[in-house]
Each structure stands twice: as structure tokens, then as C-alpha cells.
Amino acid sequence: MIVVIQCAASKRQDAGYLHNRTGEKIVFVAQPDKVAKRGRKVRYVRPDDISDTGKSYRQVLADYNRPAAAKKNPFGLLPAWQLYKNPAYRLLAEYCGLDRLYILSAGWGLIAADFLTPLYDITFSKAGNVDVSKRRGKNEDWPDFAMLPVDCNEPVMFLGGRDYLPLFCKLTGKIGAPRLVWHNCDRGREPDAPGCQLRRFASPTKTNWHYQCARNYVEGKISVKDAS
């Protein structure tokens, strides 16, 4: 079973940032022009803005993750599964193995669990307390990473909210293996996920319920054996 879990707003503050050639810290947001409070020696950009190398920051990050460069890791970037604070990511990494765990990131797309990832502030959440500079519209077409191989022959399970589901469906749409989507919607209001099997996870928690779903999966409390 391949597990895909959405990213989280709460990230480890000891994680690294990318930097440009002049030493500025690069902070990735969805709408750089909407950042109200700006720090010194900090540049706010989108992942696909052009860096001072002439490449997009997305390509810079891809190059950073090439084996020789990743081994040096001069900016101290954390692998994606370690970037987020919630222990569910560690539990899944230990249970599934890094080769069967992926993160659906609002900033980067569908990335492997061991992909070195800088701190960023981008989300699909529409919650009122989320700063507008961090909000990526669900219909914005970014050249997201899609690291799950198209020829994947294992079932793929998604743990995440409705706001992230369109991106999951888009980035896994060409995969021939079965896709299982857990959701926490009321009956009769199931999410739209073409080509996917839907499974309801009943929980009174409407926000971040997928962390409990992940724990239940690791503990064998929910069944996925029919995902085929």
C-alpha cells in the first residue's frame, strides 16, 4: 500500500531554508505581493519564480535533491516526513517505509517522503485565520512535482482534506493502480474524486481528522484490504 498524506501548516522551526547567492533567506508563499510583514534579508517568492541562477526555485530544489548535492545538504533541509511537527508523519514513515510514503504539498505537489524540503508557507486552507499570502487557489495550475511513478502497481491511499483532494486526483490521475480516498464528510456530501474509491472515516473532528485516521491505519483499526 502506498500512502499519501497532505502536508501541514505546523513545521519544525529548526528546518532549513533555501538561500540565494547574496545570502537572503528564501521564504515560499502563494502570493508574495500580499505579505504584510517582511523580514530583513528575506525574499518572499513562489516556488516557480525565477531565482538568481536563472532557474526556477522548483528546479533549484530539484537540483539540490540530486544525490551528490543532497549528501552535502548545506542549508540543512529536512526530508519531507521530518518537516512537519505532527507525529503522524513519523508513524507512517516507520510503518510504511520511506519508499511507500508520499506527501501532498500545497507548495510542491506530490513529493517523496525523503525529498529534502525547505520551510514554506503555502496552503489550500480557506480558514479565516490563514494569512492571504499563504493561500493557493485550488484552481491555480502550478507545475507541481508528481513523484509517484505512473507505473505504480500498488494501491494508493490518500489521507487529507477536501481542499487537497483535487490536487491528489490530478497528480495521480494517470496511475493505473487503485486509489482509495478517506474522507470525513457527512453522508450525502461525499467529495468528488473521479476514479477513486471513497471510504468514510467517522470522527467528530472536522479539522486534521486525517492524523487520527493515519494512527488507526498504523494500529490496524481500519481496513484497506478491499482496496483493489
Whole-angstrom Rg? 18 Å
**What's the total helix number?**
6
| SSE arrangement, N to C | EEEEHHEHHEEEEEEHEEH
Average of per-residue pLDDT values: 93
Q: What share of the residues does DSSP label as strand, in percent?
A: 15-25%
Describe this structure in words.
By secondary structure, the protein is of the alpha/beta class. 19% of the residues lie in helices and 20% in strands. The chain has helices at 57-64, 67-72, 80-83, 88-96, 165-171, 209-218, and strands at residues 2-6, 18-19, 25-29, 42-45, 78-79, 101-105, 109-112, 116-117, 120-121, 145-146, 156-159, 179-183, 197-200. The chain has a seven-stranded mixed sheet. The chain is globular.
Could you list some keywords that capture this structure?
seven-stranded mixed sheet, 228 residues, 20% strand, alpha/beta, 13 strands, four-stranded mixed sheet
Summary of the model, kept short:
This protein is of the alpha/beta class and 228 residues long. The chain contains 6 helices and 13 strands. A hairpin with a 5-residue loop joins β2 (18-19) and β3.
How would you summarize the topology of this molecule?
Blueprint: E1 2-6, E2 18-19, E3 25-29, E4 42-45, H1 57-64, H2 67-72, E5 78-79, H3 80-83, H4 88-96, E6 101-105, E7 109-112, E8 116-117, E9 120-121, E10 145-146, E11 156-159, H5 165-171, E12 179-183, E13 197-200, H6 209-218
Helix pairs in contact: 4-6
